[in-house]
Amino acid sequence: SQQGEEDPQALSIQEGENATMNCSYKTSINNLQWYRQNSGRGLVHLILIRSNEREKHSGRLRVTLDTSKKSSSLLITASRAADTASYFCATDEGGRRALTFGSGTRLQVQP
Amino acid sequence: EPEVTQTPSHQVTQMGQEVILRCVPISNHLYFYWYRQILGQKVEFLVSFYNNEISEKSEIFDDQFSVERPDGSNFTLKIRSTKLEDSAMYFCASSAAGAAYNEQFFGPGTRLTVL
Description:
The structure holds two protein chains of two kinds. Chain A has strands at about 5, 10-15, 20-25, 30-35, 45-50, 55-60, 60-65, 70-75, 85-95, 100, 105-110. In chain A, the strands form two sheets. In chain A, strands 2, 4, 5, 9, 10 and 11 form a six-stranded mixed beta sheet that branches. Chain A is an all-beta fold. The mean pLDDT of chain A is about 90. Helices cover about 0% and strands about 50% of the residues of chain B. Chain B contains no helices and eleven strands. The interface of A and B includes residues 31, 33, 44, 90 and 103 of A.
């Protein structure tokens, strides 16, 4: 897979359920970030996890990072219809500031 | 909460015309970026800018593109002679100094349509 690839590509759940999205990458990184994008809109920064961190929380979001497997997961707990969006992981390869984005996971939360 | 702003939200132009996309980064940020997203595709890095010069650029950022910080608040992307394939959403982003916290905040984007 390419740098910063998410799976699944699409996820449909009921309101109140948890949603888990995964991201894999290939090179060493400084940080991994997750973004949300509503259809046709801008990218909203959700959370940044550094390469020396294993887990991070922000509200209903929980992000994990496993540098040995070059993978990350984003968990949204108690999902709401308003969480419906595409979610992207983005990595910055060692020493560079340019972010490399994956193809994203389209999350649909049914009310 | 401070945010990145971009104007215009939508720009329609004829092929071969020059366009300038404008961005106002978050005021205390020192790194500025442009990305683009062609419809249905990934977000792609174009260029980063620091201390009044380009610090990184991608293969996409060829001689048709240029960036400028004309004053203390604006950051612009110029496309000299637009092509049909330049049609995309263009995002500006900014981040504070410090490589350990390369937290990039994006603007709402400018949708560029080249006819």
